[in-house]
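Chain A, query sequence.
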Amino acid sequence: MAAQAGDIPRLRVAVEDGEARAAGELHRLGSWLDADPALSGVVTVERREGAPGSSMGLEDELLIGLVTTAVVDSVFRLLSAACNYLRNRGGRRRITISVEDTDLRITLDSRTPYRRGELEEMAERAARAIRRGLPE
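Chain A, predicted structure.
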């Protein structure tokens, strides 16, 4: 389904703890993002719970809504906050951020020290995908 006029671009977020998806980690990440002052007024965090014991792809997820028109800056702030979360949590974790209605996936790994330029490039890619999905 394509984005409609007035829609807020949204990003889906998944967290893997080791090799498994981790609902508890997703909840902690959502709380982390809610509390990050750099994201205040820039994104909304919506938690959706999947069906208990479902094997049909219905699982917990975070939906991040971009509430400003500064898409690159908003996504960069989100990626920076996600990297800070990974660094502070320790262990082996991955966060995958996907742009709704596109095939773009950005995966951040706790074992990789990302430089600012890398995060900026990822934010640019996400912004291009978001703009392609919005009506002219």
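The helical segments are 23-35, 71-89, 116-133. Strands lie at 10-17, 20-21, 43-48, 61-66, 93-99, 105-109.
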